[in-house]
Amino acid sequence: MLEIKEISVSYQRHCALADVSMTVEQGDFVALIGSNGAGKSTLINSVSGLTKISKGSILFQGETISGLSPDLIASLGLIQVPEGRKLFPLMSVEENLEIGAYLPDPRKMYARNLGKMFEMFPRLKERRKQSAGSLSGGEQQMLAIARALMAQPILLMLDEPSLGLAPIVTQEIFKILRELNDEGLTILLVSQEVLQSLKISRRGYLLENGSVNLTGASGDLLKDVRVKESYLGL
Amino acid sequence: MNSTLIFQSLISGVMMGSVYALLGVGFSLTWGVMKVINVAHAAFGLLAAFFAYTVFHRYGIDPVVSLVLSVPFLFFLGCALYRFLLIRITSARAVIVSSMILTFGVAIILENLALLLWGADPRLFTTSYTSKVIIVGPFYFQYPPVIGFVMSVVGISSIYLFLKRTYVGKAVRAAWQQPEASQLCGINLGRISAITFGLAVASAGAGGVGMGLLYSFEPHSHNLWLIYLFLVVIVGGVGNVLGTAMAGLIIGVITGLSMAFLPYQWVNLLTFGLLMVILVVKPQGLFQSEV
């Protein structure tokens, strides 16, 4: 479904990604793990069109998307939940969800999808008239996910959804992602929570200093000596 | 002091201020949403006023009615200006500064265009109702400010409702609050910016005709109007539509009252002295910046 072919990204003279390749299949749940500064966000932003790639190509459902503008890429069903949530702070919960359903097709399904989101996240229903900026961190993350789901994603990409959240909230969010994938949604998860993301995902990629150093089934990565030593502290 | 005079000046201040607000609301929007300080904003208003003048004196059509033509025209002109001119500076590191320089050039062009087409003489709408008054009890109201007030209420509330109730309006607010995330939701920033700029320039047209109802105008009048724009926007909070409206009313009331009770040369001193006090005490404006 998503094919990243040997892409490179440089910021000024600093190389953030070097010849990274990666694939995400239909129905897959891929975890992209690695430490801070490894290039995970750069990769996901390149897919979304927020970061320009200097080399390589990105294909989504067989079509080249590298070079398209972010809104066009979103309209193809490639939806990102950005790092730090990036909600519209002065708008209400409901307005945030409305903007999530901004594109023509999702807009037609707005009422139905809104009901689904409120079912999935009852807390958001309670706070539907409150401004997004007044929500707790966990609620904000749920709203960010719900906003992305309102766009009816074909591939959902999440950048550090557990950042700054309490462990119990993180677990709740990961559980929701697991359920979404079980229902058939393709997910690409970027996270520093190596253990948890490998536990819920099907396949994993380890990104170090801008290149993919390890890839395989998530269960195998969990057993890998390098992952154990560097990321799980075992 | 008698209370009738106070009340009378209060009301005329409100009416005058509402027109400043109408002229200022678009200025505030482009500043808040797009970080573009459109120094030519008042010049667009002036253009609409001159157009209204010509239409009125040549065909006898009321200045307010001329807006049916000039508002859509200015909307498309604004969109085009964004599309072909302003878009080039949106990626600049200091958009605010470069936008001021760019639009200053536009203002000079517009001012000289007005000079070329209409000459340097001051113009005044002398409609059938210009000198008529409405008398309510002990108060009397001149027609032109009342019309300006109604225009302002209609104009500002439609912009407010556009931003709060329509999908595109909500997209404008979203794009301002979180440009990157709004793109990830499928919002085309270029298109939203063009619409915002077009809307702002169109509202300047309405504001300009409103100003023309109150004062005489000439090709360089927009410079004076511009000072009031800064005043209204700084007091009202950048990007805040209702704040701009409130600021217009406050400034109108202050000007109205000081006009009634102070020698004329003190009026601007008081108004702008107050601006300085506000800038020192509450530099973010009396109302929060919000779209």
Structure notes:
The complex is a heterodimer of chains A (234) and B (291). With 234 residues, chain A is α/β, with parallel strands linked by helices. Chain A folds into 2 domains: 2-77 and 155-232, P-loop containing nucleotide triphosphate hydrolases (Rossmann fold, 3-Layer(aba) Sandwich), CATH 3.40.50.300; 88-152, no CATH class. Chain A is 41% helix and 26% strand. In chain A, a hairpin with a 2-residue loop joins β4 and β5. Chain A is globular. The N and C termini of chain A lie far apart (35 Å). Chain B is an all-alpha fold. Chain B has a single domain (13-281), classed as ABC transporter involved in vitamin B12 uptake, BtuC. Chain B is 75% helix and 3% strand. Chain B has 11 helices and 2 strands; from the N terminus they run ααααββααααααα. Chain B has helices at 3-34, 41-59, 63-84, 95-118, 143-165, 167-177, 179-184, 189-214, 221-236, 241-261, 264-281; strands at residues 133-136, 139-142. Chain B has a two-stranded antiparallel sheet. Chain B is globular, with a radius of gyration of 19 Å. The mean pLDDT of chain B is 91. The chains are: A alpha/beta (234), B mainly alpha (291). Chains A and B meet through α2 and α3 of A and α6 and α7 of B.
Helices and strands in order:
The complex is a heterodimer of chains A (234) and B (291).
Chain A: E1 2-11, E2 14-24, E3 29-33, H1 40-48, E4 55-60, E5 63-64, H2 70-75, E6 78-81, H3 93-100, H4 104-108, H5 110-120, H6 122-126, H7 137-150, E7 155-159, H8 167-182, E8 186-191, H9 194-200, E9 203-208, E10 211-217, H10 218-223, H11 225-232
Parallel strand pairs in A: 3-8, 3-9, 6-7, 7-8
Antiparallel strand pairs in A: 1-2, 1-4, 4-5, 9-10
Chain B: H1 3-34, H2 41-59, H3 63-84, H4 95-118, E1 133-136, E2 139-142, H5 143-165, H6 167-177, H7 179-184, H8 189-214, H9 221-236, H10 241-261, H11 264-281
Antiparallel strand pairs in B: 1-2
Helix pairs in contact in B: 1-5, 1-8, 1-9, 1-10, 2-3, 2-4, 2-8, 2-9, 3-8, 5-6, 5-8, 6-8, 9-10, 10-11
